[in-house]
């Protein structure tokens, strides 16, 4: 048990350092309209480059979800996606809606809606370019919490999806 605790502490320290060093990369998986072959959106996927190695989400997401570290990664991803959208718009390029995954661990945060809006607005990104996808990762969330966040995001013009 003590070995496990030490390993977790090391992992958490490396995670925080990697966030600060921007070792997490955003890859975009396109969403394509099969009738027209047009890219109509994309999903932001997180990849961790550490010590010259690629760490896949299946290896780090379950560990991050054991506490609130996943929340820090989700906001990092949202911010990076917003920065990329803003850059495309500033360069006069076409932008599409980007879907960013958020763990349901966030739903216990009563300031979540405000924090999401602030991140998007601080990057000067029109809300229509963001979709928040709440992932099915925890079961300790009550339906009213989910409904409150989804309704608030939709009211602000941000699309939502619930990955069930």
Short structural summary:
By secondary structure, this protein is of the alpha/beta class.
Shape assignment: globular
User: How many β-strand runs?
Assistant: 6
Distance between the termini: 33 Å
Mean pLDDT: 90
State the secondary-structure class: alpha/beta
Radius of gyration: 17 Å
Helix content: 40-55%
What is the helix tally?
5
Order of helices and strands: HEEEHHEHEHE
Biggest sheet details = 6 strands, mixed
Proportion of beta-strand residues: 25-35%
Poorly predicted segments: none
Describe the structure.
By secondary structure, this protein is of the alpha/beta class. It is built from 5 helices and 6 strands. The relative contact order is 0.13. The mean pLDDT is 90.
Sum up the structure in keywords.
164 residues, alpha/beta, 6-stranded mixed sheet, 5 helices, 6 strands, globular
SSE topology:
Elements: H1 2-20, E1 24-33, E2 38-50, E3 53-55, H2 57-64, H3 69-90, E4 97-103, H4 112-122, E5 130-135, H5 143-155, E6 159-163
Helix pairs in contact: 1-3
């Amino acid at each position: 048990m003590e070995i496990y605790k030490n390993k977790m502490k090391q992992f958490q320290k490396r995670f925080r350092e990697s966030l600060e060093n921007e070792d997490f990369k955003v890859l975009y998986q396109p969403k394509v309209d099969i009738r027209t072959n047009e890219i109509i959106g994309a999903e932001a996927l997180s990849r961790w480059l550490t010590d010259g190695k690629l760490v896949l989400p299946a290896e780090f997401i379950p560990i991050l979800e054991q506490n609130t570290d996943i929340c820090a990664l989700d906001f990092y991803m949202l911010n990076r996606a917003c920065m990329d959208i803003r850059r495309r718009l500033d360069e006069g390029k076409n932008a599409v809606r980007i879907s960013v995954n958020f763990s349901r661990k966030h739903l216990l945060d009563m300031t979540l809606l405000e924090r999401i809006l602030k991140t998007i607005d601080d990057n000067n990104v029109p809300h229509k370019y963001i979709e928040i996808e709440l992932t099915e990762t925890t079961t300790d969330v009550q339906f009213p919490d989910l409904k409150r966040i989804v309704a608030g995001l939709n009211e602000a013009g941000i699309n939502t999806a619930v990955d069930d």
